Amino acid sequence: MRSRPVRGRGVLSGTGLIITLLAATLAALVFPVWSYADRSGTGLDTLNAQTLSTSYGPLSALDRDFVTKVRLAGLWELPAGQQAEQKGTTQAVRTAGEHLVLGHTFLDARVRDVAARLGLALPDQPNAQQRQWLATLNADQGEQYDRDFANLLRRAHGKVFAVVAQVRATTRNSLVRGLADDANATVLDHIKILEATGYVDFDWLAQDAATASPPPLTYSPAPAGPTAHPGTPVPVTPSATYTLPPAASSPPP
Questions:
Q1: Which of 137, 132, 139 is nearest to 96 (CA)?
Q2: Which residues face 59 on adjacent strands?
Q3: Digit-coded pLDDT (tens) for 112-144
Q4: Contacts of 114 (CB under 8 A, 6+ apart)
Q5: Torsion of CA 171, 173, 175, 178, to 10 degrees
Q6: How far apart are CA 15 and CA 31, in angstroms?
Q7: Which residues contact 62 (CB under 8 A, 6 or more apart)?
Q8: How do residues 22-43 score in pLDDT, each as one tens digit?
Q9: Residue 15 predicted with pLDDT over 90
Q10: Phi, psi for 82 (deg, rounded to 5)
Q11: Measured between alpha carbons, how far is 72 from 136 in angstroms, rounded to an integer?
């Protein structure tokens, strides 16, 4: 007996294929929206995960990085300024050194106060790169010292200046906001006085900025919370004759 052909099988198979394709297309459209909304690693997710609650407002990872960077800047730029007051061969270089000493003495007192209130531990010596810069300045003599001093310090202040602007624009923490205000005024003064030495190589600075990769965050080693005051800083200095002066209670005139 011949088997009777099943009518409509081809039609049903074709319909099933169309439905399958439509379902796959819908899934492809919906999946990116669902996956983006739920996945971790987005900017907002990172901000929320790395932000700590304090009585002065939320404290982000960028805020903590900024506080640490202000401290690190003073630990090498202040002794570099003290050295420039002695080794600079021109009055302009010696004056720049004086501004660095006054400004970072004030900022160091401010950052230690802010860190103590937020419960953040601070470094007590410059990092490896900063110690290398101090070693370079310690070995330099004459006009070479003036040039290296002006350019190394101007480059460092330019990088910090960009961080200050970002923090001031985005922070939700009142203590960090006030520190950013003080840092902005101090760093801008130092940039101007370093440029006034006449030794700053602006072409080198522009090329360096164009080729540099973003620096990693420098997290404080402690979370926010009640801690003892970080205490008196002990910076690494170019030589034994340059020590950190007492913290100022007000900004320099």
A1: 137
A2: 52
A3: 999 999 999 999 999 999 999 999 999 999 999
A4: 67, 120, 175, 176, 178, 179
A5: 40
A6: 24
A7: 166, 167, 170, 171, 217
A8: 555 545 444 333 333 444 445 6
A9: no
A10: -60, -40
A11: 18
